[in-house]
């Protein structure tokens, strides 16, 4: 006798827990004959095909507006999931959602070089790991002395300069980048909130103006 699984339980493992989402996913499986309205269990042998049917038809997405926009652009039907860790776009992470949106905005606006002034060593490493493969990053330690000449070089090099005032950042360092009258002032964004998502969202807002 072949093994089988509870259909609703299998849906729940994929974040398909909301009544409307569950009904739509089930209808998709019924359309291709993988189950019927009378059944509550499904043969495990049918699960790979069921997974394929859902993947081809639906984009599993959380309620965040950025993720909803990506789902609509995918050409598939948006299927709301809960918990949001099952979202195909952000995986439930505010940082991940902001990283993806920031990279997309940079690409759209022709931004290839970004300077980040401030932030802890761990956060700078995280940004390098998550963004460094798609754009060029120059990370400036906000606790170490930075000459005016080096800061000027950063301003000339970068397409966008994020000065992260809510983190480990000495005024003597930040003032090189934020002083009024610099011809590169239009590139500089002063970020007053903590967190990677807040940093990148500030960059997005500046680029979208």
Question: Could you characterize the architecture of this molecule?
Answer:
With 209 residues, this protein is an alpha/beta fold. The protein folds into two domains: 4-86, no CATH class; 94-207, Rossmann fold (3-Layer(aba) Sandwich), CATH 3.40.50. It contains nine helices and eight strands. It has a four-stranded parallel sheet, with helices on both faces. A two-stranded antiparallel sheet has the order 1-2. Strands 3-4 form a two-stranded parallel ribbon. It starts with a strand and ends with a helix. The mean pLDDT is 92.
CATH C-level name of the largest domain = Alpha Beta
Number of strands: 8
Q: Indicate the low-confidence ranges by residue numbers.
A: none
Largest sheet, spatial ordering of strands:
6-5-7-8
Shape: elongated
Task: Map the helices and strands.
Blueprint: E1 4-6, H1 7-12, H2 19-31, E2 41-43, H3 47-57, E3 58-61, H4 65-73, E4 77-80, H5 94-109, E5 113-117, H6 121-131, E6 136-140, H7 148-157, E7 160-164, H8 171-178, E8 188-191, H9 196-207
Parallel strand pairs: 3-4, 5-6, 5-7, 7-8
Antiparallel strand pairs: 1-2
Helix pairs in contact: 5-9
Defining key terms:
single chain; 209 residues; alpha/beta; Rossmann fold; four-stranded parallel beta sheet; two-stranded antiparallel sheet; 9 helices; 16% strand
Short description:
The protein is α/β, with parallel strands linked by helices. Helices cover 46% and strands 16% of the residues.
